[in-house]
């Protein structure tokens, strides 16, 4: 537990520092996180991280994320062309790998690269929103952490009904509800003290967005648990002692951001 707390404090402080710095350092830092999370998914599948398709996917993810802060990159490697290059490399490798690399693995690599790249691209873009970007980033992060803490402590104290026993046996319905309640409290406090309210005192909109973040954040956690259970692993990686991998820490964020994007909450 001590190691878990120390790792969480150190990693959280570093993460917040780069958010506050913003600009290119933030984009490069998030690009690195995204690439590592991608490689964790690659290894989980049993694909060598040193294979040509895996490395190509990692480069794709990094450029996709960093491009959000350096739009000039698109003048040299436009996103659609970059995607086409990844597909071509992956399929050509399948042809010349003598059946050591199949279409199932190719599809896994491509989906992993796009899903993770898209989410972290949206995260960097959100930080660059004029006027409210920094506040919105902290709003989402605080709600995620509040939801996780509320679900954990309420679940341990009052949890009886299993939420998804076949995927994550320790999660409970009571814990999920507790996470939502704590997130709502955190959201109202945040909106009351932030210098520039995100929702212009529209409490109804604040509640709706908070519910989306809290509920779908927990579903994102379950989605990653389902992936890990399918591949028979406990953690996505070992980069964070006591916490597992980066995918374990950012599974909720990766799930939330595309949903907020589809609903035009962020763009």
From TrEMBL:
InterPro entries per the UniProt record, alphabetical: PC_trans
Record bears the keyword Aminoacyl-tRNA synthetase: no
GO biological process per UniProt: CDP-diacylglycerol biosynthetic process
Enzyme class: transferase
GO MF annotations in UniProt: phosphatidate cytidylyltransferase activity
Enzyme Commission number(s) of this protein: 2.7.7.41
Involved pathway(s): Phospholipid metabolism; CDP-diacylglycerol biosynthesis; CDP-diacylglycerol from sn-glycerol 3-phosphate: step 3/3; Lipid metabolism
Subcellular compartments: Cell membrane
Catalysed transformations (reactions): a 1,2-diacyl-sn-glycero-3-phosphate + CTP + H(+) = a CDP-1,2-diacyl-sn-glycerol + diphosphate
Classification via PROSITE patterns: CDS (PS01315)
Superkingdom assignment: Bacteria
Protein name: Phosphatidate cytidylyltransferase
Keywords assigned by UniProt, alphabetized: Cell membrane, Lipid biosynthesis, Lipid metabolism, Membrane, Nucleotidyltransferase, Phospholipid biosynthesis, Phospholipid metabolism, Transferase, Transmembrane, Transmembrane helix
Membrane topology of the entry: Multi-pass membrane protein
GO cellular component terms, A-Z: plasma membrane
Membership in a protein family: Belongs to the CDS family.
Entry's transmembrane regions: 12-39, 51-70, 76-95, 107-124, 136-154, 175-194, 200-219, 246-266
One Pfam family from the record: CTP_transf_1
